[in-house]
């Protein structure tokens, strides 16, 4: 596998071909569409203005789930679809998706039967793609699984199973899968505008963000998969178009493992703002979230609001026996959800998590909404529609049973290499070539210098942020430690990509300024 940006860019700059589909946006939705279309045999290009999963797609709760709260809302079709997709992703990317036990602690006598029945319905809906059956727990069993749960008034619990995954790594693997299937994929390429011929969208005005070079990409169908920015792209097509997306911000805090030392996660079905709250073990840490805050402004680097910090700290203290202090928080990160407007956009917890596909009069195809779990089904629906717009042959979808790059059931002993799946052996061999590449990037975290070399050569890592925020996700695990790792990462990248000392210094300064926003203060 080799995600080679120079080769992809050279092909695009030549302006020598007309693609069936040009996809704008390198998050879950766009990458899924690229995989689906390319695996059907169509010619595909995908461009991303920043890096793959730079926005929402790397800032999730790291769960592949049917959505227990959608069951409570009565959205049965979404739950069924998500449970099916959970099973398919578990089969197609076993190196990134695993089954995890979730415990709902019960503090009233009626909660056990109430949630127990609900989870049995959840099990039945999963059918053959279910992970493990749910059951009620005694008080002692509940404490045994989640020993740091708040025990005052605890009467028992309910256990069920859902999926956990590594969102940013899946995005990188999807980009590699698309490239393997024949798609042209490039990050740091911005869509500056749309090209029209006789009033019909026929391509993209593109710009290489690194060099500033401008070029055009011709396509029979342009797909707008830009997440929270879809309305901006729609206005390039039609300045009078009405917004379809309402923004909701979700914030998570990351704590040391001691706050939830077992392997099971905690799920609180309903908090003060009506959201589900999770405390989930992840890479030797614990993620607690999420919030649901309506916002007006879009940003590639959203920041947690004071009331969101207060909410998370208060609820963590309420459900865990140990109260966290600000100094315990290793990182705090925010993500924006593109929710489809329907009625009152002020209550984003009630807006649709279903995906929506729109086709403008000029043929621009926009897809938005949805969630990571259902990315593949979104992509299938998008490409089914895009084939009609492009006037190309309709071909059967192949992504249901398509292994994602890295797919393996092999047991990988090295903790830091597990997420690479079938690439782990090649990375280990690379590390053996240079003892310096075997050093850790930061104390207390397993990541090695060799990973940066691999990511630069094979995963289109272009900056310190690309490495520390997404390909290792060190920024989310420990913001301060990632800031200390920045000089070594910058030097390794500069060596691989041919940059000078001034570039290194600039990268370190820029990254540390960005990472400071992930430090809980």
Give a topology summary.
Elements (H helix, E strand, L loop, with lengths): L4 H9 L4 E7 L3 H12 L4 E5 L14 E2 L3 H6 L2 H17 L5 E9 L4 H16 L8 E3 L1 H7 L10 E9 L2 H14 L3 E4 L1 E9 L2 E9 L5 E11 L5 H8 L7 E12 L8 E4 L8 E6 L2 E5 L3 E3 L10 H14 L11 E10 L14 E5 L5 E5 L5 H16 L33 H9 L16 H10 L5 H8 L2 H4 L1 H19 L3 H15 L6
Parallel strand pairs: 1-2, 1-10, 2-7, 4-12, 10-18
Antiparallel strand pairs: 3-6, 4-6, 5-6, 8-9, 9-10, 11-14, 11-15, 11-16, 12-13, 13-14, 17-18
Walk me through this protein's architecture.
The protein is α+β, with helices and mostly antiparallel strands and 521 residues long. It folds into 3 domains: 5-56 and 168-244 and 350-401, FAD/NAD(P)-binding domain, CATH 3.50.50.60; 86-164 and 246-349, D-Amino Acid Oxidase, Chain A, domain 2; 415-518, Alpha-glycerophosphate oxidase, cap domain (Helicase, Ruva Protein, domain 3, Orthogonal Bundle). Helix content is 35%, strand content 23%. It is built from 16 helices and 18 strands. The strands form 2 sheets. Strands 3, 4, 5, 6, 11, 12, 13, 14, 15 and 16 form a 10-stranded mixed β-sheet that branches. Strands 1, 2, 7, 8, 9, 10, 17 and 18 form an 8-stranded mixed β-sheet that branches. β1, α2 (28-39) and β2 form a beta-alpha-beta unit. Residues 343-352 have low confidence and may be disordered.
């Amino acid at each position: 596998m080799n995600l080679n940006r120079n080769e992809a860019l050279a092909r695009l700059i030549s302006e020598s071909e007309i693609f069936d589909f040009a996809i704008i946006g390198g998050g879950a939705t766009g990458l899924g569409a690229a995989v689906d279309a390319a695996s059907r045999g169509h010619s595909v290009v995908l461009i991303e203005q920043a890096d793959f999963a730079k926005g929402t797609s790397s800032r999730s709760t790291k769960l592949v789930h049917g959505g227990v709260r959608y069951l409570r809302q009565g959205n049965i079709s979404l739950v069924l679809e998500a449970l099916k997709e959970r099973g398919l992703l578990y089969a197609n990317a076993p190196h990134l998706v695993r089954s995890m036990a979730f415990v709902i602690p019960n503090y009233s006598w009626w909660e056990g039967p109430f949630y127990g029945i609900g989870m049995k319905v959840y099990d039945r809906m999963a059918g053959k793609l279910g992970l493990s059956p749910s059951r009620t727990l005694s008080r002692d069993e509940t404490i045994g699984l989640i020993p740091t749960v708040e025990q005052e008034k605890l009467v028992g619990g309910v256990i069920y199973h859902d999926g956990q995954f590594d969102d940013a790594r899946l995005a990188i693997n999807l980009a590699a899968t698309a490239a393997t299937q024949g798609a042209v994929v490039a990050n740091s390429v911005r869509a500056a505008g749309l090209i029209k011929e006789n009033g019909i969208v026929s391509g993209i005005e593109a710009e290489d963000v690194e060099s500033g070079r401008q070029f055009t990409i011709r396509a029979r169908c342009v797909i707008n998969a830009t997440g929270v920015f879809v309305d901006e792209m729609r206005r390039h097509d039609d300045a009078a178009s009405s917004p379809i997306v309402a923004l909701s911000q979700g914030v998570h805090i990351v704590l040391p493992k001691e706050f939830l030392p077992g392997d099971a996660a905690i799920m609180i079905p309903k908090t003060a703002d009506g959201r589900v709250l999770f405390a989930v073990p992840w890479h030797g840490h614990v993620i607690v979230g999420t919030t649901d805050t309506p916002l007006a402004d879009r940003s590639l680097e959203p920041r947690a609001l004071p009331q969101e910090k207060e909410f998370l700290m208060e609820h963590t203290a309420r459900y865990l026996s140990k109260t966290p202090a600000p100094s315990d928080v290793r990182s705090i990160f925010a993500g924006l959800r593109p929710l489809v407007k329907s009625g009152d956009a002020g209550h984003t917890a009630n807006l649709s998590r279903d995906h929506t596909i729109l086709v403008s009069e000029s043929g621009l195809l926009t897809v938005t909404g949805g969630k990571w779990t259902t990315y593949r089904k979104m992509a299938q629906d998008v490409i089914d529609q895009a084939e009609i717009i492009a006037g190309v042959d309709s071909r059967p979808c192949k992504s249901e049973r398509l292994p994602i790059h890295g797919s393996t059931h092999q047991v990988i002993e090295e903790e830091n290499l597990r997420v690479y799946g079938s690439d782990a052996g090649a990375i280990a061999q690379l590390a053996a070539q240079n003892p310096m590449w075997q050093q850790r990037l930061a104390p207390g975290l397993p990541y090695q210098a060799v990973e940066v070399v691999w990511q630069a050569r094979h995963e289109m890592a272009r900056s310190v942020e690309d490495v520390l925020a997404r390909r290792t996700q060190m920024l989310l695990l420990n913001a301060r430690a990632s800031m200390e790792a920045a000089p070594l990462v910058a030097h390794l990248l500069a060596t691989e990509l041919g940059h000078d000392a001034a570039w290194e210094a600039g990268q370190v300064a820029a990254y540390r300024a960005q990472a400071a926003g992930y430090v809980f203060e």
